[in-house]
Amino acid sequence: MKRYFLIIDQGTTSSRVVIYKKNFEIFDIVQKEFKQFFPNEGWVEHDANEIWTDVKYLITKALKKNKLIAKNIISIGIANQRETTVLWNKETGKPICRAIVWQDRRTSEYCSNLKKRGLGKKIQKITGLELDPYFSASKIKWIFDNVKEANINLKQNNLLFGTIDTWLLWNLTEGKSHLTDISNASRTMIFDSKKEEWSNEMLKIFRISKKILPQVVENSFNFGSTKLFGEQISIGGMAGDQQAATIGQACFDKGQSKSTYGTGCFLLMNIGDKFKLSKNRLLTTVAYKINGKKMFCYEGSIFVAGSAIQWLRDNLHFFKNSNETDKLYKKANKNENLYFVPALTGLGAPYWNPNARGTFFGITRNTSKEDIIKATLDSLSYQTYELIECMEKDSKTKINEIRVDGGMVKNNNFLQSLSDITQIKIIRPKNIETTSLGAAYLAALQSGVIKNTKEISNLWKKDTISNANINKNIAKTNIKIWKSIINTVNNFY
Asked: Can you name the residues that pair with 464 across neighbouring β-strands?
């Protein structure tokens, strides 16, 4: 009877439920976009209730559509947008305000003040993270400073905190499980990744009470079960979306790297079982902990990737479907020297400038929408190059290939751009849904369907390989121009 894994892939712009067969082939996917709130410049919010309602609806829809019942599901896995912050009343189950999204920049000034106090290095030493509004800590602090219900509920011992994984799990288990996994915990900026515990020093800096925090566990774990869809279904795997994709891409060996191109772009390199700080403004974070074995990674974050394509579609109306960008890229004028810095929500690694804004360089009367689309896609290749450069310096390891995934890698011209600019091999796997696949593997490990990560490595299959088609010197010249442009933007803001 039990033949499927049900995976919740909760992203920044949509929620999805993916059903995998026992052999890890996709059986079905259902998806629903949800509303984005932008109440002020640089603010990004989600309705956590809407996210939960959508997830519940999608699970019901997926089961009904495929004539499945709870008995057919081996286990549930969860992958989620990271850092997005939810605080809720545990008695009513209602959030006390909208969720503050990882892209949100409202705490920029607060983070700048902490830097001026010289706290940046201490925070990095304990958490492995750059002091930035990106992470959960300053978002929690903002809620306590600006939402009265937070302090009222805290005094009444009714307040709980969680990132989206914890929020979904708490609802699935009807309040029985208030847990997070180690990969999500390592992104909050209040977690000590070496000691594997909430850091008292960080809690003191951000004035956060430990009693609202979830318990931290491994990625493959008995997270509890849900009875909301008929009979009991166990929940066996959980990871932040980028770490889930790293697992889905089978990057279990030191030096292996993957880059996901979704709403943002996230390049992760496995650096082994030792916590090492970056000297080039990358993040050190937990890749995973499975069967007692913990691995770390360097991570470079580009805040705007797919969301730039979404902006071209929804705000500039350049096309109706994102898939059109592949053909439109090919129509661009190769003689147009157009560059775009897509800092629509600030700049991530290695600049960490929350105030930077998007800028085009080189627009002429001849510039077309195709040229703008090409410049937008190429900008992600240039930013990826900069992340690779930082990782190679930190790890003292040459990156020869990157495994890529996410919706944008369906675009073959973008893959060629990546390879041309970085001058390395770009590999797209047969299953580009690596985020949900990673969560499926974690659930499978907990349920005993697979025994170890070696079995996962054997399941990974490549599909497309892109190699550089342009001369290395041409790439170097273009990179030099790009660097001068992005430095101009960074210095201006």
From this structure: 428
How far, in Å, CA of 163 to CA of 177, rounded?
14
Contacts 24+ apart (CB under 8 A), 444-449: 444/5, 444/24, 444/74, 444/75, 444/236, 444/237, 445/220, 445/236, 445/237, 445/290, 445/291, 446/75, 446/220, 446/221, 446/222, 446/234, 446/236, 446/237, 447/74, 447/75, 447/234, 447/236, 449/22, 449/74
Residue 322 CB burial class (10 angstroms; 0-12, 13-18, ≥19): middle
| Total structural domains within the chain | 1
Q: Could you tell me if residue 193 is inside a domain?
A: yes
Model confidence over 253-305: pLDDT tens digits?
A: 999 999 999 888 999 999 999 999 999 999 999 999 999 999 999 999 898 89
Helix (H, G, I), strand (E, B) or coil at 303: coil
The β-bridge relationship of strands 215-217 and 197-198 is unpaired
Q: Where are the alpha helices (DSSP H) in 331-471?
A: 369-395, 412-422, 434-447, 453-459
Rounded Cα distance between 489 and 479, Å, is: 15
Query: Does 398 map to a domain?
Result: no
Over residues 295-348, the pLDDT tens digits come to 999 999 898 899 899 999 999 999 999 889 999 999 999 888 999 999 998 898
Is residue 344, in this structure, part of any structural domain at all?
A: no
Please state whether beta strands 86-89 and 159-162 pair in parallel, antiparallel, or not at all (unpaired).
antiparallel
Is 384 part of any domain? no
Domain carrying residue 201: 4-241
Number of Cβ within a 10 Å radius of residue 108: 17
β-pairing verdict for 293-302 and 283-290: antiparallel
- Residue 55, domain CATH: 3.30.420.40
Residues in the chain: 493
